[in-house]
Design goal:
By secondary structure, the chain is mostly helical. The protein is built from eleven helices and no strands. Among the domains are: 103-150, Arc Repressor Mutant, subunit A (Orthogonal Bundle); 151-197, Orthogonal Bundle (Arc Repressor Mutant, subunit A); 198-244, Arc Repressor Mutant, subunit A (Orthogonal Bundle). 65% of the residues lie in helices and 0% in strands. The longest helix has 51 residues, at 29-79.
């Protein structure tokens, strides 16, 4: 061992040269490191234990909260009334909405159409043409005609009666006249077939009308009446009723 004071090498408890005693060996160095390791292990174990326990309650709380929320939503969903499709809009409300979009021109055209039908008969196309003649646009006239309560068959009946009140017609001639006025063939036929008329008498009136303006032989008069649409029997009746 070397003396830390004089540097003399020696064996023993004190230096033989200077008498300096050998420094006492420090005890417990190994125990110190063991204690440090043990303390570190204890801290690590405590930390791990603390972390696991803190996560567990948090996880449980989170899971409990999620479960509670899901149950609340399910309860609310089951208790809430089932949503239903919007109820259909009442007819009166629909009509009111439609009326809100009616222009002044359409309203006036509607009023005018009703006024015309109150005094004379019209076909659908004839009434539209009349309204256009009055200055209404085609759209306004069509709106008016399509929004009035009218039976076109009945209008054909009234128009046929109106014609017969001023002139004589054969059945086919009256149908053609109604078609000329814009009635459909079915409407014209309905009108002619639903009036009280004697076609023989109509032939007699037509023959009389011809004879009042010009002279005819019997055969020429009959031919003219047939040309007007009367049957041969009706034409002969008309000629005979006028002296032939």
């Amino acid at each position: 061992m070397k003396c830390p004071k004089c540097g003399t090498k020696y064996n023993g408890a004190a230096c033989p040269n200077c008498g300096a005693e050998q420094p006492a060996k420090k005890k417990g160095g190994c125990l110190k490191w063991v204690a440090i390791v043990v303390v570190a292990l204890i801290i690590l174990i405590v930390a791990l234990s603390s972390g696991g326990s803190s996560n567990s309650p948090s996880s449980s709380a989170s899971q409990s909260t999620s479960t509670s929320q899901a149950q609340s939503e399910a309860s609310a969903s089951s208790s809430a009334p089932a949503s239903s499709a919007p109820a259909s809009q009442p007819a009166s409300e629909s009509a009111g909405a439609a009326d809100g979009n009616v222009t002044t021109g359409q309203k006036n055209a509607l009023d005018k159409a009703e006024s015309y039908l109150s005094i004379m008969a019209f076909s659908r196309s004839g009434l539209i043409s009349q309204l256009e003649f009055e200055g209404f646009t085609t759209e306004e006239a069509e709106y008016a005609v399509d929004n009035i309560e009218v039976d076109w068959n009945e209008q054909a009946v009234k128009k046929a009666e109106s014609y017969l009140s001023t002139s004589a017609f054969s059945r086919s001639g009256l149908i053609k006249q109604l078609e000329f006025e814009g009635f459909a063939t079915e409407e014209a036929e309905y009108g002619v077939d639903n009036i009280e008329v004697d076609w023989n008498e109509q032939a007699a009136k037509k023959a009389e009308s011809y004879l009042s303006t010009m002279s005819f032989s019997r055969s020429a008069l009959i031919d003219q009446l047939v040309f007007e649409g009367f049957t041969t029997e009706e034409a002969e009746y008309g000629a005979q009723a006028n002296g032939y």
